[in-house]
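Input record, target 12 of the design panel.
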């Protein structure tokens, strides 16, 4: 690590690395600090990424790091825990005590998926316990898919997953009772409804509180998305809740479409500000933020 950079990027996922490539190609001095804890590490492959379909998450990130280095950027292992304004720059501190300075900061620290507290979910996360049908639906097409209802969106999610398999079951679990209209809609699509609370996801299927075991190959769940915000909180940027159709999905950091935050010189990209972004949109957001940061620096230098 050097003592000063044009830009420090916290987070080395798709958004952070894409921004770093863009900035390095613009002849900026760039440091990427990455903890090595990518959200999608349990997944077998990255999907819907044009030209990179099915690539292993680790392979994609390794290629990104090589690209950053190829243009003169630096990537180090670590976690940025805080930053504070010192004159025209930010003093940046890592968890291991290392420090550096940067004219601009980009937080691409992502989020944490908080799963329902049901035994068996965590160890199957990314393989048989899934969230996004566009990311994993093809891999479980035609199989017995369960949808765990924990809020009022269970019917919508069951209808969505039904696109990938006619053998789709909605487990009501702790969700509100269904209306007659909802039951009719589900029945029209051949979606089975299982009453009662789910107590575990076992090798052979879903265990209910009654002791009954319902065969199930994959279970769709709705995690709570919690932004990694330690760095941003140190700068006065606190996460806010995102609510959709009356349900709180998680927390995020508000920002302009360019990624600029309410704190001058601080930018965000990827899941830290867009909870719904998959890998390709996150990379695109990183590229856009990197370009806008470069423009911001040009304007400052011209004043």
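The sequence produced for target 12 reads:
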């Amino acid at each position: 690590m050097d003592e000063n950079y044009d830009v420090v990027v916290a987070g080395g996922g798709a958004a952070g690395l894409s921004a770093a490539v863009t900035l390095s190609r613009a002849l900026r001095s760039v440091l990427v600090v990455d903890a090595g804890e990518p959200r999608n590490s349990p997944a077998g492959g990255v999907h819907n990424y044009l030209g990179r379909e099915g690539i292993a998450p680790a392979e994609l990130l390794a290629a990104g790091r090589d690209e950053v280095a190829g243009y003169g950027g630096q990537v180090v292992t670590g976690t940025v825990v805080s930053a504070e304004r010192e004159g025209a720059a930010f003093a940046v501190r890592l968890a291991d005590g290392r420090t550096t300075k940067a004219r601009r900061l980009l937080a691409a620290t992502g989020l944490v998926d908080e799963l329902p507290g049901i035994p068996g979910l965590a160890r199957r996360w990314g393989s048989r316990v899934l969230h996004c049908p566009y990311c994993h639906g093809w891999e479980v097409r035609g199989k017995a898919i369960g949808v765990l209802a924990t809020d009022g969106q269970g019917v919508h999610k069951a209808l969505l997953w039904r696109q990938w398999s006619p053998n789709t079951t909605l487990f009501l679990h702790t969700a509100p009772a269904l209306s007659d209209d909802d039951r009719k809609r589900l029945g029209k699509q051949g979606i089975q409804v299982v009453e009662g609370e789910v107590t575990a996801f076992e090798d052979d299927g879903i265990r209910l509180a009654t002791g009954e075991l319902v065969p199930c190959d994959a279970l769709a769940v709705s995690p709570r998305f919690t932004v990694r915000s330690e760095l941003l909180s140190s700068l006065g940027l606190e996460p806010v809740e995102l609510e959709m159709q009356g349900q709180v999905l998680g927390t995020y950091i508000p920002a302009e479409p360019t990624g600029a935050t309410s704190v001058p010189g601080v930018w965000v990209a990827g899941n830290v500000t867009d909870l719904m972004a998959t890998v390709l949109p996150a990379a695109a957001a990183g590229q856009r933020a990197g370009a806008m940061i470069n423009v911001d620096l040009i304007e400052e230098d011209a004043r």
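The chain has a mean pLDDT of 96.
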